[in-house]
Amino acid sequence: MNYFFTSDHHFHHTNIISLCNRPFQNVEEMNKELIKRWNEKITTSDIVYHLGDFSWLSHIKAISDLLSALNFKEFHLLIGNHEKLSFNSKIASLFTTYATHRDIKINHQWITICHYPMKHWYKENADSWNLHGHSHGRDSNPFLNQLDVSVDNTNFYPLSFDEVKKQIEIKNRRISLK
After folding, report:
1. What is the pLDDT of residues 72-111, one digit of tens each?
2. CA Rg, the chain, in Å?
3. Whose CA is closest to 50, among 158, 170, 162?
């Protein structure tokens, strides 16, 4: 079992292709490629934390169809601006958890997860991390121990816990050298 973090898939969102300069011809191609890259890394034994803006569509069949196409053991959805506006309690019940933010601990590492980047977070002075989405790779994340896990920032792949750890270590070294 591994832990994975990702956000901002925007399944079924045609305009996200041009808004984020995604390299897809249409929404069908984008959806297919996002599912493929997800399933290349994530197995049915893995736990996924999706940090918001999972799907543009908000009817239960569309969400259920997407979930059945994706590998995972547990799927924890953090509410992004799209879910906040359009998901109802029936859709929310399809996920292991459905929340605005969470503080979790994996391998002795505290992590605050939320759709939006934070300026301050739980145990920030104790080397905890803040993982988020929403910025689509456009934010520089000036804070130590903070990372944008949006698919637009990760070549459309989810990141494993170890990949997140490595990226945060590299980023922190770069910031410390400034």
Report:
1. 999 999 999 888 767 888 899 999 999 999 999 999 999 9
2. 16
3. 158
Please work out, in degrees rounded to the nearest 5, the angle formed at the alpha carbon of residue 58 by the alpha carbons of 52 and 60. 110
Q: Which two tokens stand for residue 131?
A: 């993982």
Write out the two tokens for 4: 């994975």
Fold of 3-177: Purple Acid Phosphatase; chain A, domain 2 (3.60.21)
Q: Look up tokens 């929310």; give the residue.
A: 92
Give the length of the chain: 178
Backbone region of residue 173 per phi and psi (left: phi > 0; alpha: psi in -120 to 50; beta: other values):
alpha
pLDDT of residue 85: 65
Q: Rounded to two decimals, what is the model's pTM?
A: 0.95
Number of Cβ within 10 Å of residue 45's Cβ equals 11
CA distance 32 to 36: 6
Give the residue from 81, 96, 65 showing the smallest Cα distance to 136. 81
